[in-house]
Please model this.
Amino acid sequence: MNDDDHKTDCSVVISEVYLYLDLECSDDRRQLIQHHLDDCSDCLREYGIEHEVKALVARCCGDETAPQELRDRLRVKLSEYVVEVETREYLP
Model:
């Protein structure tokens, strides 16, 4: 594996680290990410930082829930939310 391939793999692993931490990826993907973390000290260091941030947030805010009134207001706002998509056609 050359340096460019390794960097690409690292960027993919780092971009998916929250899915890995939250157990939101397939078992095959988890194994692939874990294997990469085992072999790559740069990604392991980044994973450690992400893991610590996630643990800190869980310790500080883990038992809190939003008030029902806030959740209801958010549901109403989200149901009213309209996504505008800009499309462009490329003509030869």
The chain is about 70% helix and 0% strand. Helices lie at 3-15, 17-21, 27-39, 41-61, 68-80. Residues 1-5 have pLDDT under 50 and may be disordered.
